[in-house]
Amino acid sequence: MSLKQKMAMSMATALLGVSLISGGTYSYFNDQEETMNTFATGLLELGINKQSIIQMKDIVPGDTMESDFTLTNDGTIDMREIQFLTDYKVIDKSENNNGDNLADYIHVELLHHVKGKEKVVFQKKLSDLKKKPFPILDAFPTGGNQEKFSIRCTFVDNEGNQNHFQRDSIELTWIFEAKQREGKSNVQ
């Protein structure tokens, strides 16, 4: 055999060996199981039984009005806190008030009804509540619970002349804001 044939035979043998090593046969057992997984967010939904809690018309100093309302947790997750926010605009239609604010003379009292008893949440002038969140409930779990409240508003009589408030009004917005519970590890 010539040198060329020996080289060709060596190359062919080497290629055959490499192909057998790399592409050799192998065998094993295999099994697979498929799982279906879900990530679904909860719903934070605070409910209230009224569109408007209180409407006071044609009031005079000394008038008081009370109204009841109910908050519900209509969502699927617990609430950590409920905050009460107030915003308003005074409409001055008559005499110049000379810096006297009608909201300083509206006294607001929020009552929480718990097990047949009234618990005073706060007693403040309407002007002290403006744009300041005030916590009214520390926790509100899901499960159909209802929290009953009353709000009592009084136009305070300062025993002086309050004629400059005649025909004035307040456009009042109350917002109840629910905050979600804290995140948990190993949520089931």
TrEMBL record:
<dbReference type="InterPro" id="IPR023833">
    <property type="entry name" value="Signal_pept_SipW-depend-type"/>
</dbReference>
<protein>
    <recommendedName>
        <fullName>Cell division protein FtsN</fullName>
    </recommendedName>
</protein>
<keyword id="KW-0732">Signal</keyword>
<dbReference type="InterPro" id="IPR022121">
    <property type="entry name" value="Peptidase_M73_camelysin"/>
</dbReference>
<dbReference type="Pfam" id="PF12389">
    <property type="entry name" value="Peptidase_M73"/>
</dbReference>
<feature type="signal peptide">
    <location>
        <begin position="1"/>
        <end position="27"/>
    </location>
</feature>
